[in-house]
Design goal:
heterodimer, A: 545 residues, alpha/beta, 2 domains, 4-stranded mixed beta sheet, B: 321 residues, mainly alpha, MetI-like fold, 17 helices, flat
Chain lengths: 545, 321
């Protein structure tokens, strides 16, 4: 059974790899749009299509207005108030479902996956299975271009309910953070770019001696998901969202393995030696940026966006652009188990609620389908051709016009496109290339391709390391399962995070077998066996979809 | 005259309740008008939401609504009392709240007493302004300041190092977490909270001070025997009110200051509620469980309010009701 599962998993990974290699081959729907309907549909989006801060509301926003024109259906947008918590806004809207379902927007983009079964059973959202092929042929074709996509977008019993977010590149940009280093310091010290964890440690040590600098990272946004545990054959660090690991088809608690304990041993060791920022736990991106700019650190873990910011500030101060991304360190044999990453499938999805009658629902499907067609893909990623983008003769790919290129506001492309963050659409890889600096793209390459470069023939290895051990997107719990899991979730997460952070930072000695065994046996109090059993069942059902 | 008054009273007593209300209303209609917004506020924001308390006894699903969700009896309370963290949360909440009452409650009284002794008016006003400024800083900004000050190379470390101590990150250390919490609390609220005491002080009859001086009381004795007794009713009322919110330690500040390594001393009921409801990282917000926790919180608060009020009525004659 175990072998079979591993085989299925490996097969999935290879098939995903094949899809990642091919660029988006989408169904053309030329001549279908605009639909010329006089109907109005309402469309809610939690965090995906927030309007640019230059605009007062969506009526001024080219993307929101133009989408209506492109598909030929009036769209009335419902968006969370600026500054409001999107999740709270969604729940406020959903609380109408019990008494007054007509008040819900027709299309809703939010996190529906975990509780899809309950929403379907309670008739809050439409079961799209009978309609999808006919009314959303482009999306249907897209889903069937890759078994992983199809699997993620339906329930265990095969009901389709959602339009998902997909990265054209597979998971490339899901690995948007990782280790970075000051290149000028490396050269001054005559060091190579570190590949193994020992070399990595050596760089920290040399920088400490020569510059008095330490390893740093913004703890809760950057470091606590993965750290560098992959070099020790472990998964996850001290984030409550990174507790469950898939190892050989088994769902386990990532923090209970011996490999994970080795990661704690190494890190708490360098903490003890004073090689790590003592403020690690309390610093955020802004504090780290200040530390980095004043030369308090020369090696860190951060995101491509933050690294770009550091370089910009250092350049402005006349210190060049010294920061570069480097691959996650491997163990001394050159092996690596996991890094920060994902499968390229987002967990925000668009659903059609029961506020739409059957006719409206069919219209919504056609509207949603547009994003997955050849023409719609371009509009969703770049806006209207000739206005915000033109096809570049050099690269054969879309490039911004001055309208975007010369706009100095933050992320000007979100004025014209809908794929920058997430939503029910496919995000073009080229968009990410246009959006980020070359150094950031190189950093993302270094992290995602494990230092093997973009042309590597070991894509299956890349996929296994970046997302093979991660709890997959689109797994659906039954209502009873999610009720029980939610109950244990909070305390179990608190326990693991609290204990492991203490070990990680040396407040508790990880080498002390007594303390470690106490932590492991303490897990029983938090129903760990039951949690893993429920998750294993759920995962097995997902695999056999 | 007295006869006339008695006749009016007798007439009044004969009126029905409706008539009495109508009469009272016509006599005091502007007072009623003034209190109307408050009544509307209380009805809308304090009484109407009480309908939602039943969520604590149901298995509430947001898409099913309150009516259609199934009843769950005391299930959520049982779950909460059996939670491995229940006792830790209870201990931390009481401890932090207790420390606040012990240190943060008397601080503004002391400040007001000291300010009262200051003769120089401009100095007095400057001190007042400076001390109540931090109250207007947003809590998020204030906590960022606290975080920066308590870093290894921050202000606090520099001061400690100056007196021969060692530099360290003070917020990450469970030993100092409560100290940082309480001190920053005093820093933020001492000036603001002293205003009400200063107002009470200005109401004390000056003749009492004169009489005390004639009797040969020193300034300190005057403070002890005139000023403090004059303040006592205000202190008592505020103390009873404070006891009524003994379990209401604000979640925002803790949320902004605590770290996994300080959960042991920092995690309280309200942050727990936040984590299982609004801040749920994965899964659905646990509305029923968090409502049950809040309801438990409120019951304990009401108990302490009544207890303090009872003791105060017995001991000092001043009480809320």
């Amino acid at each position: 059974m175990k072998k079979l599962l591993a085989l299925v998993l490996a097969l999935c990974l290879v098939l995903t790899a094949a899809a990642a290699l091919a660029s988006a081959d989408l169904l053309s729907r030329e001549g279908v749009y605009p639909l010329n309907s006089d109907k109005t549909i309402t469309w809610y989006s939690q965090d995906s299509h927030n309007i640019h801060s230059d605009f007062a509301d969506w009526h001024d926003s080219p993307f929101h207005v133009n989408l209506s024109k492109q598909v030929g259906v009036n769209i009335e947008w419902v968006l969370p108030t600026t500054g409001a918590d999107g999740g709270v806004f969604t729940n406020t809207l959903l609380s109408d479902a019990g008494s007054n379902i007509g008040n819900l927007p027709n299309i809703m983009e939010a996190y529906f996956m975990n509780n899809a079964n309950q929403y379907l059973d309670d008739e809050v959202i439409w079961d799209l299975t009978p309609y999808l092929e006919e009314y959303a042929p482009a999306y249907w074709a897209w889903l069937h271009s890759n078994p992983a996509y199809d699997k993620a977008m339906k329930t265990d019993d095969g009901r389709y309910y959602a339009f998902g977010f997909f990265r054209e590149d597979g998971g490339w940009n899901d690995s948007y953070q990782g280790p970075v280093v000051r290149k000028d310091w490396l050269e001054e010290c005559g060091l190579e770019i570190p590949k193994t964890i020992s070399e990595f440690e050596n760089v920290i040590r040399v920088f400490k001696e020569k510059y008095g600098a330490v390893f740093t990272s913004a703890f809760s946004p950057r470091f606590y998901q993965m750290g560098m545990s992959g070099a020790f054959g472990a998964y996850g660090n001290v984030n409550p969202d990174y507790l469950y690991e898939i190892r050989d088809g088994k769902v386990i608690l990532a923090q209970s393995t011996d490999e994970y304990r080795n990661w704690l041993r190494w890190f708490s060791g360098i903490v003890k030696e004073g090689l790590v920022d003592t403020d690690l736990q309390t610093v955020d991106d802004t504090n780290v940026q200040q530390k980095v700019e004043t030369g308090l650190s020369g090696i860190a873990i951060t995101s491509m966006g933050q690294m770009n910011l550091w370089n910009n500030h250092m350049e402005a101060a006349g210190n060049g652009r010294p920061w570069i991304g480097i691959p996650y360190p491997t163990n001394d044999a050159g092996e690596i188990y996991s890094i920060f990453g994902g499968s390229g499938i987002g967990s925000i999805t668009g659903v059609v609620t029961k506020s739409a009658d059957e006719e409206t629902m069919k219209l919504c499907l056609q509207v949603l389908d547009y994003a997955y067609s050849k023409e719609g893909f371009l509009f969703w990623n770049y806006g209207i051709e000739g206005e915000s983008w033109v096809m570049s003769e050099e690269t054969g790919l879309p490039a911004w016009t001055d309208l975007v290129a010369k706009d100095t506001s933050n992320d000007p492309m979100i004025k014209y496109n809908g794929t920058t963050w997430s939503g029910s659409c496919i995000q073009a890889t080229n968009l990410l290339y246009l959006k980020n600096s070359q150094a950031s793209i190189d950093a993302n390459d270094a992290w995602y391709y494990l230092g093997m470069g973009r042309d590597t023939d070991q894509l299956d290895k890349v996929l296994e390391v970046t997302s093979g051990h991660k709890w997959p997107t689109g797994v659906t719990f039954t209502t009873e399962e999610s009720d029980e899991l939610d109950l244990y979730n909070a305390s179990l997460g608190t326990y693991v995070v609290e204990q492991c952070t203490s070990f990680l930072l040396g407040n508790k000695d990880v080498n002390d077998d007594g303390l470690w065994n106490e932590f492991i046996s303490g897990l029983q109090q938090y129903h760990i066996d039951r949690v893993l059993e429920l998750r294993q069942n759920c995962y097995d059902r997902y695999l056999s979809r | 005259m007295a006869k006339q008054k008695a006749a009016v009273n007798a007439h009044y007593r004969r009126l029905s309740l409706g008539q009495k209300i109508a009469r009272d209303f016509s006599h005091n209609k502007y007072k009623y008008l003034m209190i109307l917004p408050v009544l509307v506020y209380l009805a809308l924001f304090c009484y109407k939401p009480m309908y939602g308390i039943q969520i604590a006894f149901k298995n509430y699903k947001i898409t099913r609504g309150i009516e259609k969700s199934a009843w769950a009896g005391m299930y959520w309370f049982e779950q909460f009392f059996n939670d491995p963290y229940f006792w830790r949360l209870l201990r931390n909440t009481f401890l932090i709240s207790g420390l606040q009452i012990l240190f943060c409650f008397p601080a503004p009284i002391l400040l007001a007493l000291m300010l009262n002794e200051v003769q120089h008016n401009r100095f007095k006003r400057t001190v007042q302004t400076i001390t109540y400024m931090p109250y207007f800083i947003s809590l998020v900004v204030l906590c960022s300041l606290v975080k920066i000050y308590t870093q290894q190379n921050g202000l606090v470390s520099e001061i400690v190092a100056f007196f021969g101590g060692t530099k360290q990150n003070w917020l990450q250390d469970p030993k100092y977490y409560r100290l940082v919490y309480i001190l920053s609390d005093i820093w933020q609220s001492v000036g603001w909270n002293s205003i009400i005491y200063l107002a009470a002080l200005s109401g004390i009859d000056m003749e009492q001070y004169e009489a005390a001086r004639i009797d040969g009381a020193s300034r300190f004795q005057q403070m002890l025997h005139v000023t403090l007794p004059g303040l006592l009713p205000t202190i008592t009322i505020l103390f009873i009110l404070r006891m009524g919110s003994i379990l209401n330690v604000g979640y925002e500040k803790t949320l902004l200051l605590y770290q996994p390594t300080t959960y042991e001393v920092a995690d309280i009921f309200s942050t727990y509620t936040y984590r299982i409801s609004l801040g749920a990282t994965s899964g659905q917000p646990q509305y029923s469980l968090s409502t049950a926790v809040s309801l438990f919180n409120t019951i304990v608060n009401v108990f302490f309010l009544l207890l303090t009020n009872f003791i105060s009525r017995r001991a000092t004659d001043s009480s809320l009701f």
